[in-house]
């Protein structure tokens, strides 16, 4: 019997990491021997369908009201109820609902418990009402400082039939919300289950024609607020732009080629500003800019790099899987955990406090040891894939016990 599975998440929103996570879950579910029919469910079904080539449905109820009270609390409350009613009808079509390996438990820059976490709770309530198994598959989260956020996370966790996480920080965050995590599954990020080519032999990294070091990839970020506000202040944005531009300029002045890689549409204005500012001196070489459409392109964009500098989680994952050492410009727990696990935790700066010279010192130290670090990354990639595949197999076995797969 064909198992009808809904993947509920943020696919198709111009975020390469999210799409890569959902695509990897699809590959795992559709491996030979699995009779599965996958449908995507999210807020951008049209782009999700075009990106991942699977049927897609909206997770939101139709809402035509655009009057003066559109943003009022009663209107928002009504929309939540309409969304819940819509989800109750929708999840009843499926044998299981899976939340596939994204940051579904991240508290939007430590804001109130809305957005992804509220959507996760509504999905869980709908699944409980329809008795449809709900699986959290390698989901990511963050530490929660607000009591209201912890309450919503705890309620959402109670609705999940099977829970698994991409790192121990997420598991501990769920536990501190009051959830019993004794039987929950811990794995690595779901994208690490990919069969990426090893490139641990760092001697294969090309140099430029004049013998200068090979390209350094810089991954920029729409920097978040350091104080938990919904958006960064103008001062925070300007500081990040200034220091990042100085890093790029210093590398170019050394004769090091720079490639700016943008994996999230939110980062495009930041990349444009950094590249334009660096180009103000016409004597400098031009900065190469790439905007990968998917994780395969992202992987190729970092594969020939001598090193990667950046913040975006899945850019760093791509670098690690291709055995390219990286300097982390840390803005969240997930990148700190990744850098420690991958053996490059010593080469990390804080996104809100770093200076260009500090980052360049870290980069130089990393390049001095890049051969050894590449070998460490090779070992990490093998272990991460094993842990993720093992965790996925355990989740699948539990679904079989529930009669979802036969």
Description:
With 406 residues, this protein is an alpha/beta fold. The protein folds into two domains: 3-186, 3-Layer(aba) Sandwich (Rossmann fold); 202-381, Rossmann fold (3-Layer(aba) Sandwich). The chain is 45% helix and 14% strand. The chain contains 13 helices and 13 strands. It has helices at residues 16-29, 45-52, 73-91, 115-130, 147-159, 168-176, 234-253, 268-278, 295-303, 313-321, 333-341, 356-368, 370-401, and strands spanning 3-8, 36-42, 56-58, 96-100, 134-139, 162-165, 185-186, 216-219, 258-261, 288-290, 307-310, 326-330, 348-350. Strands 3-2-1-4-5-6-7 form a seven-stranded parallel β-sheet, with helices on both faces. Strands 10-9-8-11-12-13 form a six-stranded parallel β-sheet. Helix 7 (234-253) packs across helix 12 (356-368). The radius of gyration is 22 Å and the shape is globular. The protein starts with a strand and ends in a 5-residue tail after the last helix.
């Amino acid at each position: 019997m064909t198992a009808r599975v809904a993947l509920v998440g943020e696919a198709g929103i111009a975020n390469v990491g999210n799409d890569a996570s959902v695509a990897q879950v699809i590959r795992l579910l559709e491996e030979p021997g699995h009779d599965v029919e996958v449908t995507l469910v999210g807020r951008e079904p049209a782009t999700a369908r075009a990106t991942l080539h699977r049927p897609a449905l909206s997770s939101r109820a139709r809402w035509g009201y655009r009057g003066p009270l559109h943003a009022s609390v009663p209107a928002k409350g009504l929309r939540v109820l309409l969304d819940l009613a819509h989800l109750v009808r929708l999840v009843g079509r499926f044998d299981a609902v899976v939340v596939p390996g994204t940051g579904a438990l991240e508290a939007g820059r430590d804001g109130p418990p809305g957005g992804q976490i509220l959507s996760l709770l509504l999905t869980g309530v709908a699944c409980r009402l329809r008795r449809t198994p709900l699986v959290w598959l390698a989901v990511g989260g963050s530490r929660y400082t607000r009591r209201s956020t912890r309450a919503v996370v705890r309620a959402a966790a109670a609705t999940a039939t099977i829970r698994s996480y991409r790192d121990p920080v997420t598991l501990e965050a769920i536990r501190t919300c009051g959830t019993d995590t004794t039987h929950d599954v811990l794995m690595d990020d779901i994208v690490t289950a990919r069969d990426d080519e090893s490139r641990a032999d760092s001697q294969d990294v090309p140099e430029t024609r004049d013998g200068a070091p090979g390209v350094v990839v810089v991954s920029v970020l729409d920097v978040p607020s350091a104080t938990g506000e919904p958006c960064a202040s103008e001062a925070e944005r300007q500081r990040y732009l200034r220091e990042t531009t100085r890093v790029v300029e210093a590398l170019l002045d050394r004769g090091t080629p720079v490639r700016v890689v943008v994996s999230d549409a939110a980062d495009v204005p930041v990349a444009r500003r950094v590249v334009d500012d660096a180009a103000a001196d016409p004597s400098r070489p031009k900065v190469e800019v790439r905007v990968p459409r998917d994780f395969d392109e992202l992987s190729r964009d970092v594969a020939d790099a001598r090193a990667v500098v950046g913040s975006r989680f899945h850019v760093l994952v791509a670098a690690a899987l291709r055995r390219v050492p990286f300097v982390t410009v840390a803005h969240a727990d997930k990148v700190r955990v990744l850098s420690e696990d991958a053996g490059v935790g010593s080469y990390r700066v804080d996104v809100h406090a770093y200076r260009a010279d500090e980052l360049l010192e870290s980069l130089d130290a990393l390049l001095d040891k890049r051969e050894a670090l590449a070998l460490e990354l090779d070992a990490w990639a093998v272990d991460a894939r094993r842990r993720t595949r093992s965790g996925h197999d355990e989740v699948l076995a539990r679904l079989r016990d529930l009669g979802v797969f036969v």
